[in-house]
Amino acid sequence: MTGKFGTYGDMAKKGLEIALEEINAAGGILGREVQYVIRDEAEREQVLTNIRDMVERDKVEFLVGIDSSGDSLKIAPVIEDELHVPFIVTHAATPKLTECKKRKYVFRVSMYEEPIDLAAAKLVAERYPDAKRIANIGPDYAYGYDSWKAFSTYLKKFKPDVELLEPVYPKLGTPDFGSYIDQLIAMEPDVVFSSLWGGDAATFIKQAVYKGFFKKVKVYLNAMLGATDTLKAIGSDVPKEAEVWGSGRYWFEYPPHDVYTPNKLFVEKFKKRYGEYPAYVAATSYTALYAIKHAIEKAYLLKGAWPTTEEIISALEGLTVPAPMGPVYIRPEDHQGVYEVFWGKLTLDPAYPHPVLKDLVIFGPGEVFPPPLTTVVEC
Amino acid sequence: MIPIELLIAQTINGLVYASILFLVSSGLTMIYGIMNILNLAHGSLYMLGAYFAITIIMKLAGGSPWGYLAAFILAPTAVMAVGAAIEVGLLKPIYGKPEEYQLLLTFGLILIFDEVVKLIWGPAYINFPNPGRFLGSIEVAGFEFPVYRLLLIALGFSVAWLLWFLLSKTTLGKKMRAAAADREIVSALGVSVPLLFTGAFMLGSFLSGLGGVAAGPLYTASPGMGIDIIVNSFAVIVIGGMGSILGALVGSLIVGLTRAYAIVIYPAIELALVYLIMVIVLLVRPVGLFGKPEEVRR
Prior knowledge:
heterodimer; A: 379 residues; alpha/beta; Rossmann fold; seven-stranded mixed sheet; three-stranded parallel sheet; 14 helices; 13 strands; B: mainly alpha; 2 strands; globular
């Protein structure tokens, strides 16, 4: 909720509030009103205490959220062994959470890294057949390393003639990318892949524009560019000389509003209420609440009475939620929600208060989600 | 073999970072040297400088080049006023108390300033209109350098010279150094030490604010940006010697250039190398390269 990345917590709360109001206005879940309590993840040492507290003292029946992949891996075993409460993850993106082993109580409705990286590899292989030299810049922790591992592994598979250059990993929150930008330029790459996120993703592009990076590197892909906070921070510093592609876990214009009503309604409501476009955590948090609602109702239909936790878990398995991101299917094998992956071109459009993604390329879940419980990242 | 062009480019990159580090660490080390106060919230003043600057540039000047000029003068001045308030209102009452009080107080200020910034400007990253738009870039050794970055290097060295001049050539500077050496004697000579202290703290705050204004357009303003700079500034003043302006300059150059070159040679050790240098300096010369041994000061 707070700290340098506090925007995420704020957006998640806004998404939850909308879902909560909608559900309660429509009579709650089977007539029961939904309530929530919020704890701040920024108190890092406190995360486990806070979660135990919510379950044991506040008697919450479901847990929703978690931003940090590291935190999610710390919490998951405690939930499995001790707390036994369904935990719907809306943000943390490490494959290790769902793909290394099946966890009974842990579900994830947000996209994780690997399908986005795999889609990026496909995009490069298909769109840029002449690209040979591939470089990487990502944050200096597990997410940065895993993303490059996944992207480069799949790219090598689709396009064996590529040369993978030495990846660079600036520390998370690096204020000045100047040295890294020149380092990348000196490698003379055809394509630069990046897993920088948040302010880092924006700062890199802003600094790269004025260091002539995009005159020399013609294709730049960033796996986390499709986040409204990052786009706001980029402002009008959109590279003109190169193709800059961005992806993410949700893009507010996809699925298109004219063909898919759940997204249209969500975005309209969000925009009207908060005066901005929803970031992806808003959409995934909103989805988490609806996943719970639909699962309880599905289980109730089978049983005719309020279901037990075990019955709700069975109902979540194989459930399809009409989420803003598109229909999200929760795989029974690994409890991972699957939906379409997008990559779009960073574009300035005066109709929006920040740069947006255009010319979206869509990848179906079957194309880019590895089979359940498999990953190229080390477990 | 590393191409010479890349080394030249990295030298310039290192100097840019060194300049910003120097603006912040010179104030930090000066306040410590004269007043014996380690202001943990010095990085927060840097953050305030950046936020004041964005407000001046966008709200008052509508993003025009003049806004930058105004920001470079007004924002550090506003930070200086905040510094004066901190020194007079909060630090003065605890001067006689053990040092832990200062540390607790200034640490508390970090938390307060971060929250205040979030309340006023929101938790999101704030984008500065890039000064590259009107300043342009020039090519050096085949790499492009925004003129703004080169101006920052000039700013860093100019401030270093001005500080040296102020502290060693002017009466005021001499009084400040004398007060650092022996408060009682200076006081007995009829110099108002409390006033000198307030002045030194204000000057240090101004420098940190100036660092924030300079860094803002290059980086992105965000709550917590003060933490990154204060950690690196500590490395700088430990290497250079606590209390020494020359030490802050040399320390900034060492940290800035080491990081830039490390990225070329072996990126994984970039940060480790800075701390390794710090450890070596602490082992070989615990007072830092230009620090004075404890017994000289009173």
